[in-house]
Design a protein that fits this description.
Largest sheet: 7 strands, mixed
Number of helices: 4
Structural class: alpha/beta
Strand content: 15-25%
Radius of gyration: 16 Å
Shape: globular
Distance between the termini: 35 Å
Order of helices and strands: EEEHEHEEEEEEHEH
Helix content: 10-25%
Strand order of the largest sheet: 2-1-9-10-6-4-5
Length: 228
């Protein structure tokens, strides 16, 4: 899998990257042999719970007061990031916002072009497998970048901000899927699933080809952000 997810928090937990503590490795994906229930799928992607098991990560969400006006924007474009890929990422952000807004969850994302967005996208000169050095973001700099990575800053169970990094080496055919995946994970659904039954899931650990938010993917987002 090319994407990675991490997050930091002011609370202490073995599965969190605490602000004053060294990085701790959290479970990035869970393997299941076949299809699982909607509830089991939701708990897997939201808190790394194995089917029938307890959560291995705390659940985190954007605060209710911010859910209907979350902003997304490109925060940095490195000079070495290919211009044609910039155009594709730009279109992919709009498409991903449309997918999330149309999933039926109590969320409304908005594209912005000025100021500091809640979710900033960094288009980096970092090569695939290289180390991020240029964002100024303590959750990103010093970390390894495959083709995409998301870092989430939370306090308790509330997400405060999220950052998405994209490598210059991302392939054209991966862009739309990676952007959608990282943006969905920035909603507080950070764990992937590995199973032959979930090749059509945005949380699929072994591929980057899904560009729609359907089925259990959309249901997980609705469960995480239920409408009043």
């Amino acid at each position: 899998r090319d994407g990675r997810s991490d997050w930091s928090s002011d609370v202490c937990s073995s599965d969190l990257l605490a602000l004053a503590a060294p990085a701790a490795t959290a479970q990035e994906f869970i393997t299941v042999p076949g299809p699982i229930s909607d509830e089991a799928f939701y708990r897997l992607v939201s808190c790394a719970a194995r089917p029938g098991g307890a959560c291995a990560k705390p659940q985190i969400r954007w605060p209710e007061a911010r859910r209907l006006h979350l902003t997304v924007g490109i925060a940095q474009i490195d000079r070495a990031f290919p211009s044609y890929k910039l155009n594709l990422v730009d279109a992919a952000i709009d498409a991903a916002i449309e997918e999330i807004n149309g999933a039926g969850a109590y969320l409304l994302l908005e594209r912005v072009y000025e100021g500091t967005p809640d979710i900033g996208v960094y288009l980096l000169q970092t090569a695939q497998g290289g180390t991020i050095t240029s964002t100024g973001n303590p959750e990103m700099d010093g970390e390894t970048l495959a083709v995409g990575r998301v870092a989430i800053r939370s306090v308790g169970g509330d997400i405060r901000s999220a950052t998405i990094a994209i490598s210059r080496d991302i392939m054209r055919r991966e862009i739309a899927s990676v952007v959608l995946e990282e943006l969905v994970q920035a909603m507080g659904l950070p764990t992937d699933i590995q199973s032959p039954a979930y090749g059509d899931s945005i949380f699929n650990e072994t591929g980057n080809s899904v560009v729609r938010l359907l089925g259990q993917d959309a249901e997980a987002l609705r469960r995480h952000y239920p409408r009043p």
